[in-house]
Write a structure and sequence with these properties.
Elements: H1 23-38, E1 43-45, E2 55-58, E3 65-83, E4 91-106, E5 112-118, H2 119-132, H3 137-140, E6 143-146, E7 165-170, H4 176-184, E8 188-194, E9 198-200, E10 206-208, H5 211-218, E11 223-225, H6 228-233, H7 235-242, E12 246-250, H8 258-261, E13 268-272, H9 284-290, E14 295-302, E15 311-319, H10 326-349, H11 371-374, H12 382-391, E16 398-402, E17 405-414, E18 426-430, E19 433-437, E20 442-450, E21 456-457, H13 458-465
Parallel strand pairs: 7-8, 7-12, 8-11, 12-13
Antiparallel strand pairs: 1-2, 2-3, 3-4, 4-5, 4-6, 9-10, 13-14, 14-15, 16-17, 17-20, 18-19, 19-20, 20-21
Length: 479
Amino acid sequence: MRVRTFSDPVLRRKATPVKRITASVRRLAEAMVETMRAHRGVGLAAPQVGESVRLVVVDVGDGLHVLVNPRVTASSGRAVDWEGCLSFPGLLAEIERAEKVSVEALDLESRPVWLEAEGFLARALQHEIDHLDGVVILDRARAVEKIEPEEEEEGAWPRAERPLRVAFMGTPSFALPTLEALSSAGHEIVGVVTRPDRPAGRGGRTLRPSPVKEAALRLGLEVWQGSPAEVRTTLPGVLAGWRADVAVVVAYGVILPRAVLSAPRLGCLNLHASLLPDYRGAAPIQRALLDGCRVTGVTVIRMDEGMDTGDIVVQREVEVGPEETAGQLHDRLARTGAGLVLEALDLLATGKAVFRKQPAGPARPAPKLGPEDEVIDWSRPAEAVARQVRALDPVPGAHTVFRGQRVKVWRVEPGPAAGLSAPGRVVAFESGAPVVATGRGTIVLRALQPAGGSRMTGAEFVNGFRVEIGDSFGELGRR
């Protein structure tokens, strides 16, 4: 996303309250977080990226806060310090603010949240809430100083030595960091190809654009959308008309025919979220977590007509955190992959790219997840159940049954040792949360969500459903 700077009029408008937290609001928040981190900021308000709504993201190092309709309800103390702002690069302003603040807001699940903040976090929250009211640092500054920009800011995308004319092809949020990186690195994005808008809402009467389309329109880029048949018949001519040097493909979702692959002068590069040839297919991140991989990675290949079978250009390993969810790993791989794409383009532009055949022999497949992958099998070992819960977070979520009602399980922890018991049986409670037997070991259910309800802690679930020792989770969900 492009950060609006200096005299952009959107910075002076009072933002509109969010009436309903929809999928588009969540996608905007996700894109804002990516933009904030790409620019090494500690906070970002929606007006700073051209969206005049009351939404801010803040992370000063103690965890991410995504706040909808935030407002300061109390403050105390005064402190003076220097502040920078992504919308005013090269400037520092000396500003007096409250030392402690109380902030009320909603989270992305429409739940009320309250923050008691002091010090740097309190200052960052006040700074971003100011943006929602059209107030910028220059309005509050006691003094302003210019600072020299760093020659090469750590974490920023490097500028391309030889910019290329790039056609970008992608659909979901995984592709967004690469699109942003291409723009920031100075490559000319001649057009964006994405999947057609999908039916959404009650009865499918409205159409929802892909995250890539939304980002492309914000960046002012030309967008082409076509059916799989039109990809075969029309897209080669579109790419030729754009005079693309290369196409960068990230989770586009359509198999590309030879005519498309050969239309750009330098061919098509694809970013895949695994260490190819392992985990070819639609769900490499989830499958790696399900298998308990400690290391995965990203690969850029020169595409051929096979499924993730092209020659390797560059590849990078990424360690998997012991408690990392699919959503968290998705975000890290997306950003790592964006940098890898820039590296591959530099090699391609300078004629230094070496194309390496993928190793022959069997490789672990990564087929799309099916309904059977979502159901928790309590007869499996506790560590396998824990991997399944992490692999399916945030979508579609691992689920089980309790007293005939479907329940999603969002967070678990290893449980204490216990005697033999039927898998799925509640054998104890830990800090109020249910301890459930598995095929080997026990597991503590820390966060659950009954069908049609909101997420709740394990202790809240126990109290709400009057769970007792001997109750069972699983196919029958009864004693």
